[in-house]
Amino acid sequence: MNIMTEKALESAVSDKMSGTPNEIIKMRGNKVGVFYGEKQALFDVDLDVRENQVTALIGPSGCGKSTFLRCLNRMNDTIDSARVTGKITLDNEDIYDKNIDVVELRARVGMVFQKPNPFPKSIYENVAYGPRIHGLAKKKSDMDHVVETSLKKAGLFNEVKDRLLEPGTGLSGGQQQRLCIARAIAVSPEVILMDEPCSALDPIATARVEELIDELRQNYTIVIVTHSMQQAARVSQRTAMFHLGYLVEEGATDKMFTNPDDKRTQDYITGRFG
Amino acid sequence: MTDISMDTVAGAVPRPRRDIGLKRRYAAERRFRIYGMLAISVGLIFLAIMLFSIVSKGYTAFWQTTVSLPINFDEKILDPDNKRATDPSVLISANYPKLAENALVAKLGINPDDKVTIRKLKGFLSDGARTQLRDVVAADPSVIGTTRNVDILAAANLDSAFKGQIDLNVDEARRKVSDQQVIWMKQLTTDGSMAERFNTGLFTFGASSRPETSGMGVAIIGSFYMMVIVLLLALPIGVAASIYLEEFAKKGRLTDLIEVNINNLAAVPSIVFGLLGLSVFINFLGLPRSAAFVGGLVLTLMTLPTIIIATRAALAAVPPSIRSAALGLGASKMQMVFQHILPLAAPGILTGTIIGLARALGETAPLLLIGMVAFVANYPTTPFEPATALPVQIYMWANEAERAFVERMSGAIIILLIFLMAMNITAIVLRRRFERRW
């Protein structure tokens, strides 16, 4: 990403829709800190995620952006040594509160991972798994409907409609990732977290997933971690820049890419470090 | 332009070769290959020697010499006082060997009054004829008074002589079959009534002091009971323990300690498990001695660590991305484990279990301590009755001196090896079949 010129950035930014009508705060991080054992990976992050917008988290490797993302649906709970401080809310409810069940939270805040990770089951089963465990579709016909609409929303249905019973692991990388997105939206989450969803894909598959993210924004709130400046500029409305575990600055994407407040942001997006 | 092209041409002049030790490196590789092939050859040679010696000694055990005789189930001999209707014990204790002897005397054309010659017949037919003929009568009492052809077992020495395992050129006093018996043997062989038949008795008979009537029936049943018990106990306990340790337990000092202990247990000599079984299951809990149930419990203890280690390895081999995927969708930990991790780990668990079972099947030492080295003639109908096991049967036959027992021991080893090979091949096939690459 280091060879990108500012001019290209600007054109990328101006291409996408600017101006956001409603600015409801869907999720809010308040002084979020994360420790892995004794080591602190994230320091006092205050960050808002706005409803029906794409928020991009950028920054050099090891800066804490993925760590922050994983706090949003408590995936850090699965690491024994991880400890989260501060407060994260979803619709003004503290998600680390005792009354919030982590399983229910993850049904509301879905996740798509860096490497496409379909279950080694059929395409149908991959999508149906979430609705099934949450009891969202009782009848076979309901389930068929959920699977079909999810695959359609993920832009995959036409490619796989004749082989729904074939294993999901047999698809190409880009198709697998869209299958994972279909699987995530099948449980009708409110927020979708994406951890570098295109890093394992070729440019064409990447373009398809980016288009998809832009479409999904209508119905879902999306937080995406990316190493690609162009991607952040193309798909997001808000961008947050992390560095060494701190949130450097956060703002509207077009402003971040044209006129950032912080020197480090400026250096990073123009490829002077990172 | 021309300058540049000239330069490229000039650059093509070969540079002097550097000595980067290629010869030395390739020589080292060749040497290593030779060492490897030597090591494998030595292993294969010993395996071949072992298999050859076992098979060459043991294949005859699958054949048994029998004499086909028209037995006259004479009522005067079986039931001289005609009391069998009221006293069933008459038919149990009747003089069956006499029937066989009479039939043989008639067959050989000996004068029934020539007691001296008839005495030389002793040790020609097996004493097992008693049981054989009793079984015929017990199965069909109406046979009394009629004549029927029965394949009577030859005695062990005649069997050995017939198979050519006794050197008949040795002086008569120093071998176990007399010249007269050899003549009869040849006579019966010529008329076709004395022949080798497939030795079903090897698989069905229980323990016996006579080689020709001893078999592995009890041992096979005992081993089968034990394998079932080990499978029923060790698999669920082992898998449950592994899942808890691997997926649910918080990693810490305690789990480390448990892990060290499990690995230790896998290396504990099996005789120690036998002592444990003796003191806990038999002396403390009062379970019966020599029973397959206790043997199964002891082998379960022995197999558990193997299964736990294999299962944990199989669980750990399931990539974290599958766990993340399931948890990210809102699956509970239990759902993640049982709907995703366990099915993917199943081939590995199965392989480990089969290898553990194979090891348990071949285990002898702990069974000696809990009394399974016993003379058991009757089939155990439940796992709580005395039984032996295949390897223990081999051990017991190895302690016998007679040639015919050596043959049976080798035969039993062949059968045990076939069982073990079948299990290990199953394990390999399962692993190949379901192995998944990520």
Automatic annotation (TrEMBL), chain A:
Keyword tags: ATP-binding, Nucleotide-binding, Phosphate transport, Transport
GO MF annotation list: ATP binding; ATP hydrolysis activity; phosphate transmembrane transporter activity
UniProt keyword Electron transport present: no
Cross-referenced InterPro entries: AAA+_ATPase, ABC_transporter-like_ATP-bd, ABC_transporter-like_CS, P-loop_NTPase, PstB-like
Pfam families listed in its UniProt record: ABC_tran (PF00005)
One GO location term (cellular component): membrane
GO process annotations (BP): phosphate ion transmembrane transport
ABC transporter domain span: 27-269
PANTHER family listed in its UniProt record: ABC TRANSPORTER I FAMILY MEMBER 17
Family: Belongs to the ABC transporter superfamily.
Protein name per the record: Phosphate ABC transporter ATP-binding protein
Organism: Mesorhizobium zhangyense
Automatic annotation (TrEMBL), chain B:
Residue ranges annotated for the ABC transmembrane type-1 domain, each copy included: 220-427
Subcellular location, record wording: Cell inner membrane; Cell membrane
Entry annotated with the keyword Transmembrane helix: yes
Gene3D superfamilies assigned to the protein according to its UniProt record, in alphabetical order: MetI-like
Keywords for the protein's UniProt record, in alphabetical order: Cell membrane, Membrane, Transmembrane, Transmembrane helix, Transport
Membrane topology: Multi-pass membrane protein
Record GO terms (molecular function): phosphate transmembrane transporter activity
An individual GO BP term: phosphate ion transmembrane transport
Transmembrane segments: 34-55, 218-245, 265-285, 292-317, 337-358, 365-381, 409-430
Cellular component GO terms, alphabetical: plasma membrane
Keyword Ligase: no
Main location class: membrane
UniProt family annotation: Belongs to the binding-protein-dependent transport system permease family. CysTW subfamily.
Name of the protein this chain belongs to: Phosphate transport system permease protein PstA
Organism: Mesorhizobium zhangyense
Highest classification ranks of the organism: Bacteria, Pseudomonadati, Pseudomonadota, Alphaproteobacteria, Hyphomicrobiales
Gene responsible for this protein: pstA
